[in-house]
Every structure is written in structure tokens, then in C-alpha cells.
Specification:
By secondary structure, the protein is α/β, with parallel strands linked by helices. It has 2 domains: about 140 residues, D-Maltodextrin-Binding Protein, domain 2 (3-Layer(aba) Sandwich); about 120 residues, D-Maltodextrin-Binding Protein, domain 2. The chain has 9 helices and 14 strands. It is globular and about 60 Å long.
Length: about 280
């Protein structure tokens, strides 16, 4: 990935709010979005050389914590802010954070290329990741132990999967935690009987499965069409959060560009799915 020059955030002398120093924008948060965020920054700086954008990951929770602590201008998030996070923000800034939907993602379920399994239901995924299903033969595969990989609990993708697929249940104790989606994918690519999950843009090196809402439903593969029309059952928005007090000037222009045709072309180039036209900036 392209290394972006280190920048910093200026904090107001009063300590009540903060704003980007002229031409400098910091972005922190979702590892799922870090490649997308860096490509947005790279493309934007090509046409706006007076603006410098620094993008780092660490996880959605890390990015939101930095937003609360005045440690970043923008927080990338692969899930919505939690009610407590919003409440904490209001206590500090006396207003709610501004939420922008910036892309669509079909959360993919990855298995090794050599695994004959082609589809699973949401119920089967629940069983695999909570430990009720431990062998591939239980879901129509080979007689081999399932090796399960997940994200760390600071990850928005982890929380989205836990709420959307596991309905709040805990992951099995045997699940192996990985530091990022790329690491999950690499582990699955190495382990013939592995399974993991991650954003659609990280699909190289393994294969993704078609997913069924229930045993009687048709299995649907993640694609722009199935994510936009909602037929793929594990889809989500990707978000950027900002303090409304600084959503102007350079930062406001950058956020508008991200949601414009130019910014949304980057979304598609990276492998995620552009926003519906009614959510784009015209």
C-alpha cells in the first residue's frame, strides 16, 4: 500500500473542539476500509495538491475512540456507531456526530479454493462460528475438522458479523482471531479446511461462498447487483463519522468528493460497491 506522508491535527486552544490544520486531514479506523481510504486519499491529492490526507487503520472501535478523543478528523467505520459511543460524543461536543454512508459491502464468507463446499445457509454459519458444527461433513463437505478464523473484537466487521449472523451469540472458544481481513484471507488460503469472513474487496487468494437466508432459500453470491438489491443476505453500508463543527472547508470538500461520481468510481475500482444514486453527492 502507498505510504502517505504523516500529518497532524491541530486542537483549538479552548479544548472544546478541533479542526484540521489548513490542508491537512487525518483519517483513522476500519481495517476493512483502509485500502479504500488510502486510494481515496491518493486520488484526491492528485487533483487537490494543496490538501494532504493521512489514512491509518486499527479497527472501527479505534477510529471512533480517536474521534471522541480529538485524535482524528474522520473515523472510518464498517458498522454504525453504538448508542453509547454517540452518547459519549454528545457529552463531549454537545451535538451528535455526522454520519455519512460512503460505500456498500457484501460481507463475504471465504473458504479455501480446494474446499468443495459452494454454499452455506445463515443457520449453518451460525453453527460453525459458535462451535455447534465442527466438521465439514455436517454441512455436506469432507470428513475434516473445520478451522475457523475471525477478526479481533475491536473490529467493526467482527461486531457486524456477530450481530447479523450470530444474532449476538458468542464466537466459539476455538475460533482463531486475526488482526485484519487480509490476515483472515491469508489464513484461509493456507488452510485447506479453513473458513473466515471479510469485506468483498479482499477476495483474492480464496473463494467466497453463495449464502442462503434459510434452508429453503436460493443461495446468492455477493455481487454489486445482489448487494444493491438486498438479495445477498450479509450486506452493509460503510461509514465515515465526523464532528459537525469541522464538516466544512477542506474536510467538507473531501467528504463531498468521496460521495461524488469520482469518489464512488474509486469504491468500484477497489472492489466494493458504489452508493445508490440517491445517496451520492451531486
Amino acid at each position: 500500500m502507498k505510504l502517505i506522508k504523516h500529518l497532524f491535527v491541530a486542537i483549538t486552544a479552548l479544548g472544546i473542539g478541533y479542526s484540521a490544520q489548513a490542508g491537512n486531514i487525518t483519517v483513522k479506523g476500519s481495517d476493512t476500509m483502509v485500502i479504500l481510504g488510502q486510494k481515496w486519499a491518493e486520488r484526491y491529492m492528485q487533483t487537490h495538491p494543496q490538501t494532504k490526507v493521512q489514512v491509518t487503520g486499527g479497527g472501527t472501535g479505534v477510529g471512533i475512540a480517536a474521534l471522541l478523543n480529538r485524535g482524528t478528523d474522520l473515523a472510518n467505520a464498517s458498522r454504525k456507531m453504538k448508542p453509547k459511543e454517540v452518547t459519549d460524543f454528545v457529552k463531549i461536543y454537545n451535538k451528535r456526530p455526522t454520519e455519512y454512508k460512503v460505500a456498500l459491502d457484501g460481507l463475504s464468507i471465504y473458504v479455501n479454493d480446494q474446499n468443495p463446499i459452494k454454499e452455506l445457509s445463515l443457520e449453518q454459519l451460525d453453527g460453525i462460528f459458535t462451535g455447534k458444527i465442527k466438521n465439514w461433513k455436517e454441512v455436506g463437505g469432507q470428513d475434516s475438522r473445520i478451522v475457523v478464523y475471525s477478526r479481533e473484537n475491536s473490529s467493526g466487521t467482527y461486531e457486524f458479523f456477530k450481530e447479523s449472523v450470530l444474532k449476538g451469540k458468542d464466537f466459539a472458544a476455538a475460533v482463531q482471531t486475526m488482526p485484519g481481513t487480509a490476515a483472515v484471507l491469508q489464513a484461509v488460503a493456507r488452510e485447506k479446511f479453513g473458513i473466515g469472513y471479510g469485506g468483498a474487496a479482499y477476495g483474492a487468494g480464496a473463494k467466497d461462498l453463495a449464502i442462503k437466508k434459510d434452508a429453503g432459500s436460493k443461495a446468492v453470491e455477493p455481487s454489486e447487483e445482489t448487494v444493491v438489491n438486498g438479495t445477498y443476505p450479509i450486506w452493509r453500508y460503510l461509514y465515515i463519522y465526523v464532528n459537525p463543527a469541522i464538516d466544512q472547508g477542506e474536510i467538507g470538500s473531501y467528504l463531498k468528493w468521496i460521495r461524488s461520481d469520482a469518489g464512488q468510481r474509486v469504491v468500484k475500482d477497489i472492489g466494493y460497491y458504489p452508493l445508490p444514486e440517491n445517496l451520492q453527492e451531486k
